[in-house]
Amino acid sequence: MKNRNKLSVACLAVAGAIGALVVRELPHAQAAxxxxxxxxxxxxxxxxxxxxxPRCMNCHPAGDAPLQGxxxxxHLQNVKRGPDGKGLYALKCGxxxxxxxxxxxxxxxxxxxxxxxxxxxxxxxxxxxxxxxARQLKDPKRNGxxxxxxxxxxxxxxxxxxxxxxxPADGKSKPALTHEEFAAKMREWIENGAAIPE
Length: 198
Description:
Layout: H1 2-25, H2 37-51, H3 54-57, E1 67-68, E2 73-74, E3 87-88, E4 91-92, H4 93-96, H5 130-138, H6 148-157, H7 159-166, H8 179-191
Antiparallel strand pairs: 1-2, 3-4
Helix pairs in contact: 2-8, 6-8
């Protein structure tokens, strides 16, 4: 019995020494499944390029007028957001933005639910730094009451996001990342702790 205890103590000592060596040799190693703040921040900075692209930013303006074009100029015809985000008075989004894109350069893009965020939850992208936008996306009081999982579901599955961003009207550019790459970067940001880039 004494020999068995001595052997157990010796095994524990060797295991401890190996563990200490691994920690010394790999000081930046993450425990399996542990959040990686650096990876999270890097992923968000890649996704941020999409948020700042005209296809996204034009419907997430700082003011109450939607933006349009590659240069994100204020929407012609003096269009305004309206309380529900679907336009004001006779200038409703759906009057010009039909269920699908209209063919021809300069024609309106379309989707059955074309709209801006509502006035009480504007979700502004325009002018936001990566730090400001990441904080806004994490804050249910400013993101439409969504959890991080809800944000991921929205950017991954919402048909208006996919249609307006990656199936734009004729002559309009697409974001640098594909929709799948963008969703993957958002997932990486969230799964690694949704770290705020500084």
